[in-house]
Protein 1
Amino acid sequence: MFSIILTWLIVAWGALSCIYMLRCAWRRFPKRDVDDVIPFLYPVDISLAESLLDPAAEFEFRWKLQPPQFREAQRKRMRLYLELTRRMSHNATVLVAYADAEKNSQDPRRVSLASTLQEKAVEVRLYALLTRFKLRLRLLLRSDILISKPVLPHLRKACDIDGLQTYSALKVAAAAAFVQLPPEELASLTRNL
């Protein structure tokens, strides 16, 4: 009985993944140019992310608050970091679409910068995907056992990718790829990232 259920789950998973790939191929990322990137970026507060991932801050919350209050504060902090990783993932998606459009350029320097930007964006997307999965699982399971252990400081790294360092590297790669922008638009780009 178990093997039949497992077989059908594998078949369903395969069918859903094929449907997803067809959907992605059908919709494709829109071709983005320089004017389409800045308005579509969501601001990510790195200092807020660093404070959420700080082990000392979590220890201080654990020390000052009663267990039920700590769990509620921890859940709020987890939801906030989930939103920050969602924004990181969205920004990386927009930058990947721009880098794809730039790879068709005749200038080898722009192609090289676009490749670097795309690599960093893919790393950020991978980190965000894994981190969002872990956070959603922990938020879904409202178990006291899972919440009692330190959660957020362990999410700084996922698959040997330091999320905040990689996102900072993405910001540097984006600034290098958009060097042709006027200074005020470049400042807007780095502010929105």
Note: The radius of gyration is 20 Å.
Protein 2
Amino acid sequence: MTKRWRELRAAVERITGQIDQLDRRTEKMEVILMVREPTTSVAADAYEGLRKQVVTAVTDRMAHLAQLVQLDAALTAGAEADTVGKLARGWVEQASLERIVDPEHPQRDLLFEMVEDLGGRHEVLEPAYVDALTGRVIRRGSIRRADGAAERPGGPDERRAPWEVTQ
């Protein structure tokens, strides 16, 4: 029976390889037809999609370069952390980035990495960033479950995360 299973497995692998090869050839034929007959609606849609992507990429690059110029000019002029922070928050807003700091967010497990679990309440250590237009997580934040009995020492600003103090 072992020999029969090996033969069946080999046949399935051979058939799978042939199907993959047919898929690749079909894709090549579609590309060739699209290039040879650019008046077809499929070709027109493909070219229009590519054109839009190129325009978007150039626009995004120019916006990013402008941000870098603003940052460099601010730093060269001796801008303080508060000024640079305002610039960065403006860029975050322009980019439709959402800063998530809610430790009870319904998608907490997707948005935050648990770095310590002492069994207490959830506490955000670093915010998560999400593209507000697509919902894609751009950067996961970090969270911990703090021990409820242990309070962090210091005044109100020392109990807050560094990103909360400047707000």
Note: Residues 9 and 148 are 57 Å apart (CA to CA).
